Structures are given as structure tokens and as C-alpha cells.
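Justification of resources, computational component.

The compute hours requested in this renewal are based largely on the per-chain cost of generating structure records like the one below. Each record pairs the submitted sequence with a full C-alpha cell output. That output is archived, and it is also reused by downstream analysis tasks.
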Amino acid sequence: MKITPLQKEQERLKKVFDGTVHELGLKKNLSSEFIIELVYVAGERWGDKAHLNFQKEISQKLSRVKDQNKVFKIIELAFAFWNHFPHKDMANKTPFELIQETNRQTPLSLPSEPKVIVGNHEMTMNNYQAMLEEMEKAQEPFRHWLQDKVIPAYAKFLQSTYKPTTIKKHASVADILCSRMLMLGFVSPEHVRPDFLFTEFPVWWQTHVMFGNYTETAVENSVIEFLNFIEGTYGVVLDDEYIKSDPHLWD
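The structure output for this chain reads:
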């Protein structure tokens, strides 16, 4: 029996997912079979909130993973399963198949090489990976400054200034903010947009961070606390529309 493009993609996703959770030491908590079953029952179990609760269910399995980049990678893969595996409430079909049915005049087909959408541009997975590698090289000084200097210094500052509950909030917001800045491709303080810091990130937190039930205002206040620390300690300003910082301060 001939294997369809959809079946090929399903097998590829299972292999990538299981390999990833194995690398993270999570194979006891997560597996491709678990995700496939969860996709199948999600719509019937949660109705209109299926998409959100699907993400929450997976996030709970990842609660012990401290590296948010790894968490996002697993969730990203899980949503690929959502699109390419059957849903019970869709008559045992996949979203991919339903899209094909509604576009019979120009049927969709899975490319031999997976593609991704970055901004408004489509690129192959290989080109996307190459772009990420270049971005990581360009980010290295900024990454080193944030992870090896700023975050440890901020932790010491919080320990000497606040009570444990406040320390936990400010520290988690700062840690995830730094991870998010790097994931989005910011390569220096000058590239970090005020809108991202004070609007986009606090809003993003509400649907992507399952621990720390902080409001948008609470997250924004923690961001301000972190930025005030950076400015006071390093003389680097991330929240000015016209940033003029000395790169030698953070290289």
C-alpha cells in the first residue's frame, strides 16, 4: 500500500518528537502516542477551549523543565501533531485533510522538505535552520551578557532586597523575558523594542506561561524592576525609544 504524504509527515513528527523528549529526559512523562491520543479527544473533551487546554495539558508535563526554549520547542512540535493527526470531533480526520477538502481545485500537499513561515516569508526548514544558526552567532555577546552577568547579578540583588515570594516573581519574569528576547532574535539592547517589553511580553505571558499566575500589570511591573536594575547597574537602557547605549558596557 502506497504511503501518503500525510502518513510520511506523521511518521516524521513521531520520530522527531520522541527523539526530542528522550534528549530532555522526559520520555516517562511524554510520548508521541500520548500527544496523538490527546489530539484525538481534545475537541470532544474541551470544546471551544480545546486549543488552549491542549497547550496547558502539555505544559503541565513540562513543569520541571527550566529551559523555556526547550518547553517552546516541545509545544511547537505538539501543535504540528494537532494539524496532522485525527480529531474525533472532526469525524476522525485531520485539520490538514479538511483543508485539502475545501481546496480541491488547488489541493494542498506536503512538501518533500518542510517549510515554515517567518514573519511574512516562507522558507524551507534547512534555510530556517541556517538563519537560526547565524542569529545565534550574532546573539552570542548579548546572550553571554544576559545569562552570565545580568541574571546572576539580578538574583543577588533580589535576595538582598525582597521577600521570597517577591523574589520568585521578579526572578521568573526576568529569566523568561531574557529567554524570550533571545528566541525572538534580538541581538543587542538597541534592538529590544519598548512595545515588546511593556505590551507584547505581558500579554504573551498570559497564554504561554502556565506557572506564576501573574496579571499583565504584575508582569509589566516586574519588567520595569528588571530594566531599572540593568540601567542602574550597567548604564544600559532597553526601554527608551531612541536607545544610545555603549556596546562596551555589555560585550
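The chain has nine helices and two strands. The chain has two domains: 5-110, 127-249.
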